[in-house]
Amino acid sequence: MGAGTDIDYSVIVVGSDGSKSSLLAVERAARIAAAFNAELIIATAFYESKEDALKAQRQDSVTILGDEQARANLESAASHARRAGAGKVQIAAAAGTPVEALMAVVNQFDADLLVVGNRGINTLTGRLLGSVPADVARQSDCDVMIVHTVK
């Protein structure tokens, strides 16, 4: 293999909205983090007001209103990640849409890999308007893994 072909992930970000499908992505990311002895950052988006949530209404993500609900979801996801083998786990909540929040966390932690579930990618709305997995894949400067969490 030539230079630059070695894969080494040291910081992995995974998106979680507390849903069952997002916890499957957390589990996969935790296993990858364990294999690479990487730091795992579990990230979520939240809206600061009902008005913000209504303006950004998306079909492919759970609406989280307020930092408190976001942190509760993240603590639960962090426990799930530790049970799946991740040793170094942090949580991060960011205000805004899921795409905005994930991109902010990826940049804040200088992540090497972003892991998201596939929810919304195969829906009509997702095909027409975009979905969180497709949008982050287009915008991210790091590798993106889309985990098959929804059939």
UniProtKB/TrEMBL annotation:
Entries under CDD domains matching the protein: USP-like
Entries under Pfam families matching the protein: Usp
Ranges where the UspA domain occurs: 9-148
InterPro entries assigned: Rossmann-like_a/b/a_fold, Universal_stress_UspA, UspA
UniProt-listed SUPFAM superfamilies: Adenine nucleotide alpha hydrolases-like
Similarity comment: Belongs to the universal stress protein A family.
Name used for this protein in its record: Universal stress protein
Organism field: Corynebacterium qintianiae
